[in-house]
Amino acid sequence: MAQLWGGRFTKETDQLVYNFNASITFDQKFFKQDIKGSIAHAKMLGKQSIISNDEMESIIKGLQSIYSDVNEGKLEITSKYEDIHSFVEANLIDRIGDAGKKLHTGRSRNDQVALDMRLYVRDEISEIEEELLLLIKELHKIMKDNLYTFMPGFTHLQKAQPVTFAHHVGAYLEMFKRDLSRMQDIYSRMNYCPLGAGALAGTTYPLDREYTASLLDFNGPTLNSMDSVSDRDYVIELLSALSTIQMHLSRFSEEIIIWNSNEYQFVELDDAYSTGSSIMPQKKNPDIAELVRGKCGRVYGALTSMLTTMKGIPLAYNKDMQEDKELTFDAIDTVKGCIMLFRGMISTMKLNKETMERSAMNGFTNATDAADYLVKKGVPFRDAHGIIGRLVLYCIDKDKSIDQLSLEELKEIDPTFENDIYDAISLKTCVDKRITLGAPGPSVMQQVIDKNEAYIASLTLDKANY
Ligand code: ARG
Questions:
Q1: pLDDT tens per residue across span 59-73
Q2: pTM (global) more than 0.85
Q3: Residue 19 Cα, ligand 1 centroid: separation in angstroms?
Q4: Whole-angstrom Cα distance, residue 179 to residue 26?
Q5: Which of 217, 352, 407, 444 is 20 to 30 A from 236 in CA distance terms?
Q6: Is 401 a catalytic residue?
Q7: Is the CB of 167 under 6 A from ligand 1?
């Protein structure tokens, strides 16, 4: 047991208590951030002459050597230490002696862990943005390739009106754009440095918090020391945004599972993204899509868990907050992994365009257009709706689609029909004519694609400025 405290105690900690309390098995995940934060703290202590320049330099060198030794496998992070902060400090003292004992001047593990978690979450947000951008680019490409890939659009999972694959995929692209912007929002709101808050009430040393904040690329220091050590709002915001991403991926996965089914056969998943059955040799299962759908449970669970953990915590720091780590790390890794796998799955998935188009042609997806045709010939919409309703009933009885009826049959139902009805209700016309912005008509879809192109370019430029 290696702890940073003990002076006040007369007995050893019970081993079970030690294990229950320790966090090293999981908080070693932000080892890099702990070193980075400590280097910034040491630089600030040196600049403020709270420690000497030599001490500052020796601390920085010591921290850097611990960092590289761990990375090179020369030094192992073990559960002999209570947490990652203790591991770093104990090793620093081992290496540089008394100067190492000064690193923690004007700092508490409360503001230290608050900083580490923020640094970690901030790095991860950038990675999630990166993954979302790659996914958005992939969907954008699919859209460009499928402006004329007709398919039925559904409401209530019943065929409704014809759309295109570009249009359908474009709906998800919009969702992922919002997801990305949520990441940007959270980043900018959380990007303030809690270091210097101490245990809860700041310190009596002349710390320069602005300086530490700028060394660590924060917008500035946080403004209330009690809030600084006990704020986990950004974790909750992140978990909520991650839950939304996972929900979007899950909805898309559900559609892919349906489209990939024997009954639909709109798409065929690549062998590399499918799995077999141990008993049924004919099976090729969409396990990846199902797992992405299934993993919603644990991501939502993390959000619920964190909200519940935080709800009764009085100010300021309480140990309950240590519970933020495992579930946040798990949610981040899960969502990042799912975005990546999902992108691989859809970029290799084959579209059965003919099957999709055939499906769009039956199921009366052109019924609205047939009613609109009558409206254009002067029939009031409500009457036209009734006429086409009767027409559909007739078709069902004859087992035909509207366009398979002869002009005589059509005229028998309503004399307004003329020969131009066939062109008016063809699949191509039905889609081509839908030209309100945001609709599937290829001419307006092209405008959307251009806007998305500019959006993607602006994000790529942003990244270059980092
Ligand atoms: N492992 C702790 C956590 O994750 C670090 C902070 C410990 N602070 C304390 N007062 N015990 O929250």
A1: 999 999 999 999 999
A2: yes
A3: 14
A4: 27
A5: 217
A6: no
A7: no
